[in-house]
Amino acid sequence: MATATDPVDLRRRLHRYPEPFWREFHTTSLLVDALEEIGVDEIHVGRDALDVDERLGVPDGAAIEEWRERAASEGAREDVLAATEGGATGVVGVVRAGDGPTVGLRVDIDGLYQQESADPGHRPAAEGFRSEHDGLMHACGHDASTAIGLGALERVQEVDFGGTLVVFFQPASEIEGGGKPMAAGPHAEGVESLLVVNVGFGHPTGTVVAGMEGMYAIERFRATFEGESAHAAKSPAEGRNAIQAMTAAVSDLYAIPRHADGPTRVNVGTVEAGRATNLIADRATIEGEVRGETTALLEAMQDRAERVLEGGARLHDCAVTSETIGEAPSADSDEALADLVHTVLETTAGVTSPVRRAAFGTGEDAAWLMNAVSDRGGQATHVVVGTDHPSGHHTPTFDVDETSIELGVETVVRTALALDREAQAA
Q1: 7-215+329-425, what's its fold?
Q2: Is there a contact between 164 and 348 (Cβ–Cβ < 8 Å)?
Q3: CA angle 17, 208, 376 (to 5 degrees)
Q4: Given this model, what pLDDT does residue 21 score?
Q5: Can you tell me the mean pLDDT for 256-270?
């Protein structure tokens, strides 16, 4: 029998210790503790949870080790640190209750680079669970969706569910780096129905969306321009200015025409270049992204972006190299599964506004898992549990209405029960 583990308490513990992509060591350790406490049948940690060779955007060894040491100082378990060595973070928890259907649930566990507000009016600050990691916070609700995943594993053991529930606690979602290795790992095989759960995205508490649409395909890239240094006053003509090449490329990236077949996006988010005002810069690096409503549209944007990067480099006699640091295809919520979830929502206490479909309008690397399940003949849908919050996602004062965690747990468990009944009737 599962023991009592409070998902709200877990959410607050996770909120205090946000960690960036592929460095979620303390988070993974907290989850293993909780999974052991509620008594799931299987716990797969780190390299046993995903295909490490498919990871995207893995930071260098020094950055990984810094966060590993921090997690150890904060009490992370040695066995978990060993299982996640090299940044192979993440967990898969499994409850096997019978021979019924195998239901999957994907939630994300990483924090993001945002300084959390210390204003007394910000509830995490006022109630003592504000981020303890300077410059990082859970500003996208991953702490809440992770708590939903844990709560569902506990609750499903207490109801008349006769199948298997597999919960993917996925790292590196913010850079679209963890979905692919989770999908390529062994635990996606056999999943017949997959729920992807996020919280918020403009939907208030009491609203739950059964099937999001408009999950954009995305590539995050890093481009490095290399030229040649020279004295900016004495011999400017002898230099090859990487900053000029970079700025030309950035300007032209934003000038890529939008596509007639659907929405596309481009953005440059970070720039690093130069060491002194009197030095011709020999190196400049940018990180950016392109998106498309479909994978085909993304591929068109990738092609144009690559030509723009090369054009900026040629214009100023520089070289450029680019690499993918995160990517995800597009995916669609399955109509039949979304319909079933919507039917469940209509009789779920606390769900005041069940919504059949709504636009998502951004990327989500859960698309890798959704497509993996669909490609094997299964079905998948992207569920958003509404939550009241004082500001938008990725802001210093982002917070969630913790009553929405229970709504998320109920949605998942009642959907699993409905899928079990449907299988028995077939």
Answers
A1: Aminopeptidase (3.40.630)
A2: no
A3: 85
A4: 96
A5: 93
Amino acid of residue 398 = F
Domain 228-317 has CATH 1.10.3720.10: no
105 vs 3, higher pLDDT: 105
Buried b (16+ CB within 10 A) or exposed e, 359-378: ebbebbbbbbbbbbbeeeeb
pTM of the predicted model, to two decimals? 0.93
Q: What is the pLDDT of residues 92-101, one digit of tens each?
A: 999 999 999 9
pLDDT at 1: 35
| DSSP-assigned states of every residue in 155-175 | HHTTS---SEEEEEEES-TTT
pLDDT of 355 reads 96
pLDDT band at 389 (very low <50, low <70, confident <90, very high): confident
Phi, psi of 252 (to 5 degrees): -75, -25
Q: Where are the beta strands (DSSP E) in 173-260?
A: 193-199, 207-226
- Quick one: which of 141, 190, 150, 155 has its CA closest to 169? 150
- Residues 172, 173, 175, CA angle at the centre, nearest 5°? 75
